[in-house]
């Protein structure tokens, strides 16, 4: 299940991509399959060996580029030189990081002047309902819990303050919002609840089969109740950087 639209991200074979907060690697794998050189980074270590192994398996099977790896790291202190990456994906990460501004500044630092970043966060309305239904969902003592709710205006403001020019945006995964409302209603970690299990089977079926009916329904519902908000951004020139080419074909807001 992909949240980022790779056509809007303008990903090309050979691009060096950072998947920051990669988790299980869903976006890293797709970028790798499309010929990008990929570094998947996550603060947690548990899933990284499997991500690294699957990237190696894809390469051995003739899929992907000449670089696909996973590393452990802190998003507020990225272990990369300035202007390293052509593209950055930061999907469902910023709502977890206490010092979100530091993470965004680091992402701007390691992005090339002509690069692009896709940042995704939980959409405002679905997230507000989750917070109201469950304190555990956003409790600070829960590992991986959410620490803030974004509006699109706030995310754009934070991106601008970190040195980005936010542009195109969209919502995704409307059918996933009721699933999370249900989970929050019965307990976010209660995956064995019969209703949660039934809805999860529905989502798996939808992801694997992609029937036309549900694809149409999600397209209609996404602007209203899409679980994720995606904003694509170009960098503003930092001090000492040459401006990027003018024809960056990204609709940007001031």
Automatic annotation (TrEMBL):
Molecular function terms from GO: S-adenosylmethionine-dependent methyltransferase activity
GO annotation, biological process: methylation
One Pfam family from the record: Methyltransf_11
Sorted UniProt keywords: Methyltransferase, Transferase
Domain Methyltransferase type: 18-118
Source domain of life: Bacteria
SUPFAM superfamilies, sorted: S-adenosyl-L-methionine-dependent methyltransferases
InterPro entries reported for this sequence: Methyltransf_11, SAM-dependent_MTases_sf
Organism: Iamia majanohamensis
Protein name: Class I SAM-dependent methyltransferase
